[in-house]
Protein: Signal peptidase I
Organism: Oenococcus oeni
Amino acid sequence: MNKHLKYFLKIWLIPAIAGIAIAVFLRGNFFSFVRISGQSMSPNLVNNQIVLLEKKANVSRGTVIVSKTNNLQKQNTGVQDIALRVVALPGDKVNYKKGQLYVNGKKVNQSYISSQVKTETGMSIDTGWSINSLSLSKNWPKSQRNIKKVQKNSYFVLADNRIDPVDSRQYGLIKKRQIEGVVKVFFLGNKNKD
């Protein structure tokens, strides 16, 4: 083998192949880039915005997740994956009254949305509700009907755009297995209001 070819293989080709293999492994198992579809998280995330998704991150209250939609959501919205904010964890009780959201009896600080958005929604139920009253809806899966708190391996999620009822108020709890990952980095590129 000639000296220049050896040099090229050693210095350029082998490291490039190793770098690509590492990137593919990390993307497949730990991180991915996702394009936000729809206005559910507006104004914090908007349609076509690209975000970095951490696949193995812990889910906690306040985090933004990307989740697969259930069959009814997919049928009604045409969206397969949706970004939503986790409001309550397994075992939590959730209710809403007089424009305030409560988890386990404590008022939730929702500084990520405006005062107007907190009280102005497109749903008549938002004058007041509890997880129990929401769970009586025919849109909720039968396995989640008439519950008083968030079930095991499930999460109660809300859209930051509260006028957009594609969240737990309308469609029930998000199952842990539906979660694709936690939004970690918001890229300002491609951020438009289509």
